[in-house]
Specification:
The protein is an alpha+beta fold. It has 13 helices and 21 strands. The longest helix has 22 residues.
């Protein structure tokens, strides 16, 4: 098995679920606490086995994971300040335990405090004590302690629905991004319910079904995002200074990860997700239409596949430094080099890459590599600066945890956390700036035809992002 195939096997689950979350996640005003305080699945079995499993997983894979002591302390604090805030509950010293030891001794000390809290809760609740629900509450607290917006606990009911989704997607059709004031719409997908309703990329959702979503943790937003066909969700969103209302109907729809076309001597790939088949489709469009240029429109590419990003890099770049992945586990740190196109492929055509503030992950790495090696002219807005790679781990109780397990760096170890800056930076209100651009790259050739096509694509296919009220 080659290196790309090995990495694909390791990350296939992560890629699939990342796509599901980005496409289907919509906020709902149901906190995780409701899932924990009354859980019919709890069987009163010996608690904290899941806590140990979560600790081990976070310690090994979470990029921002603190030590075990800090994670255990976070669980204890959450239990004492939120879950057990009532007369007679056990109140440990949250500044302790006091010890002059370090390392394993401190972990054991906090483990002892957590066991004492659980034992006290069992005495207080009697027959109503739910060990499994309590463990899930501690798991969520530990993941929240990572202080990473992309890391979150997934309740069993939500995880079951995610894993049972059929081939077509069922959801609202927009990708949200958590912000302190609410949920920013990162992308709205074509032919989806959200698109038909008029929700636009850049809108800030402040209320869902009449309840504020400002400051929501991802776990809270995930808790009730799924519904039956025909269910409705009412959103209040800000677009610039104006406040607007939307009602979106939950229904099945087909998500198209990419569309590749060729017209007027230009091949165009509009990409929402770097996924299997994209590279082959791009190669066919260039070869069969004898295209004189390629446009990679990655304005809505909020997620993608490692393998497909590398394959597209191989197709368009000569042998060159592509970038690297830095993981919490330094043994899995990895650097990539492109191999170049296969013999006989004449694909050295001029390339234009279009970015937006929503372009993230593997799409950022691809755009950064093409721009760094002057293989493409990169236009649009600076990308999101979210090069984090997520890993999802299911647990024995049916729940799961998603964590940021690694971070991507561009060629020459360039950090992508500040985003990829285009060669030609366009204001969303000035798409015609392209008409004044005559830059060339090492690929050679006049870019006027490509830029004219790119300008038309921006104006016609992304009119919402050009509105003056944004």
């Amino acid at each position: 098995m080659n290196e790309i195939a090995q990495d694909e096997v390791k990350s296939a689950m992560t890629d699939a679920f990342a796509l599901l979350f980005f496409v289907l996640v919509a906020a709902a005003p149901v906190a995780l606490r409701a899932d924990v305080t009354a859980n019919p699945e709890g069987d009163g079995s010996a608690p904290l086995a899941l806590v140990d499993e979560t600790l081990s997983f976070l310690k090994r894979y979470a990029l921002t994971a603190p030590d075990e002591k800090s994670l255990l302390r976070a669980g204890v604090v959450r239990l004492c300040t939120e879950q057990m805030d009532r007369p007679g509950c056990y109140r440990p010293d949250l500044d302790g335990p006091k010890t002059t030891h370090s390392g394993p001794d401190r972990v054991r000390a906090w483990r002892g405090v957590l066991e004492s809290v659980v034992a006290a809760e069992k005495r207080l609740r009697g027959d109503k004590f739910d060990a499994l629900a309590l463990e899930r509450y501690v798991m969520d607290a530990m993941v929240s302690a990572l202080n990473d917006a992309q890391s979150f606990y997934i309740a069993p009911a939500v995880y079951r629905k995610i894993t049972s989704i059929p081939g077509d997607f069922i959801g609202f059709g927009f990708a949200p991004r958590s912000e302190p004031a609410g949920l920013r719409v990162a992308a709205v997908y074509k032919d989806s319910p959200a698109c038909e309703t008029g929700l636009r990329s850049g809108d800030l959702i402040t209320f869902v079904n009449g309840q504020s979503v400002g400051g929501y943790r991802r776990s809270m937003a995930l808790a009730a995002i799924w519904g039956a066909d025909g269910e409705r969700i009412a959103l209040t969103a800000k677009r610039g200074a104006a406040e607007r209302s939307f009602e979106i109907v939950y229904r099945p729809w087909t998500f198209k990860p990419y569309t590749v076309t060729a017209s007027g001597g230009v091949a165009t790939a509009q990409i929402s997700h770097l996924t299997d088949g994209l590279t082959s489709a791009v190669a066919r469009a260039i070869s069969e239409s004898n295209a004189g240029g390629l446009i990679l429109d990655m304005r809505q590419a909020v997620t993608g596949s490692q393998g497909e990003a590398l394959r597209l890099g191989d197709l368009l770049l000569p042998e060159a430094d592509f970038g690297m992945r830095r993981s919490a586990d330094t043994l899995t740190q990895r650097r990539w080099k492109t191999k170049g196109a296969s013999p006989g492929e004449n694909l050295a055509v001029p390339v234009v890459v279009i970015l937006s503030e929503n372009t993230a992950g593997w799409a950022e790495l691809l755009a950064g590599a093409l721009g760094h090696h002057q293989r493409a002219l990169v236009i649009g807005q600076k990308s999101a600066g979210r090069p984090e790679i997520q890993l999802i781990r299911p647990f024995s109780d049916g729940s799961a945890v998603q964590v940021t397990s690694s971070r991507l760096c561009g060629p020459s170890d360039v950090e992508l956390t500040t985003g990829v800056r285009p060669h030609v930076e366009l204001s969303v209100n000035d798409p015609l700036a392209l008409a004044r651009t005559t830059l060339k790259t090492s690929a050679g050739g006049d870019f006027s035809t490509l830029l004219a096509s790119a300008q038309k694509l921006i104006v016609e296919s992304d009119k919402p992002s050009l509105d003056s009220d944004r």
